[in-house]
């Protein structure tokens, strides 16, 4: 179970102690890699270009952010309510595929962060439980002009912490996931530099939580975000969180075309 306040540090690395034995200390990503944003590419001019790559119109990939038989009436009601808001074009319902490689496109990942494994079955942590209703059931809606997101979250029994309640780490992982998607679509951000969460109440398994995320500011190639997790009627506050994400260099136009 989680403590009431959690700090996540993005990267740890070895350093040599006085006697030559390895020790570990936090390493700042910015100290080792400070990207320079490339202007006038297909990704820097408009949020629409990032959204078009995040939400492909023609794909055979399974969208896990669609209603299924495990959704309770409240989850279904809220989904229909927010889906209705997409009709005027202000809100966008984001698809959720099993791997971020199907979503995150157009960013230059520093070589030191690139995976070298040849395995192909990658999964987003929040989509690693295949059976419907047992793990993460969630859907994210994004508002491009206001740079904010809303996530509907129904935790399943495989996310249990305290008996019959959701593990704090499960909520923290989802907050980080929503932050990353919002940061990417709002300003080509991706890597988590810091994540702070303060838990106020525990979420019953199979209930519904409403997570509201906003971009507070973008400066010095960093995106600052905040999140409030609460009950749908806004009477119970589950957690408050904040995070900082790194803006990455954008790919040149002639290197960014993908099907």
TrEMBL record:
Protein's gene: LOC114042809
Molecular functions per Gene Ontology: long-chain fatty acyl-CoA hydrolase activity
This protein's GO CC annotations: mitochondrial matrix
PANTHER family to which the protein is assigned, alphabetical: ACYL-COENZYME A THIOESTERASE THEM5 (PTHR47362:SF1)
Domain Thioesterase: 166-235
Name of the protein in its database record: Thioesterase domain-containing protein
Lineage per the UniProt record: Eukaryota, Metazoa, Chordata, Craniata, Vertebrata
A Pfam family reported for this protein in Swiss-Prot or TrEMBL: 4HBT
Organism: Vombatus ursinus (Common wombat)
A Gene Ontology BP annotation from the UniProt entry: cardiolipin acyl-chain remodeling
């Amino acid at each position: 179970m989680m403590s009431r306040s959690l700090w996540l540090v993005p990267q740890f690395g070895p350093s040599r102690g006085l006697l030559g034995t390895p020790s570990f200390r936090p390493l700042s990503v910015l100290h080792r890699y400070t990207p320079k944003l490339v202007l006038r590419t297909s990704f820097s001019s408009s949020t629409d270009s990032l959204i078009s790559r995040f939400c492909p119109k023609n794909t055979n990939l399974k969208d896990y952010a669609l209603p299924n038989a495990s959704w309770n009436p409240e989850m279904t009601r809220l989904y229909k309510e927010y889906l209705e808001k997409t009709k005027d074009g202000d809100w966008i319902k984001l698809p959720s595929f099993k791997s971020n490689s199907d979503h995150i496109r157009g960013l230059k990942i520093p070589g030191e962060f690139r995976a070298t494994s040849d395995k192909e079955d990658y999964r987003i942590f929040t989509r690693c439980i295949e059976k419907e209703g047992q793990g993460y059931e969630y859907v994210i809606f994004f508002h491009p002009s206001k740079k904010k997101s809303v996530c509907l979250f129904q935790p399943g029994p495989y996310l249990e912490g305290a008996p019959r309640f959701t593990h704090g780490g499960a909520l923290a992982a989802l907050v980080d996931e929503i932050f990353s998607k919002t940061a990417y679509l709002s300003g080509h951000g991706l890597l988590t530099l810091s994540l702070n969460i303060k838990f106020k109440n525990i979420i019953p398994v199979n209930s519904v939580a409403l997570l509201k995320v906003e971009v507070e500011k973008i400066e010095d190639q960093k995106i600052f975000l905040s999140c409030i997790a609460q009950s749908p009627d806004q009477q119970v506050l589950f957690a408050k969180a904040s995070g900082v994400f790194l803006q990455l260099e954008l790919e040149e136009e002639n290197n960014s075309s993908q099907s």
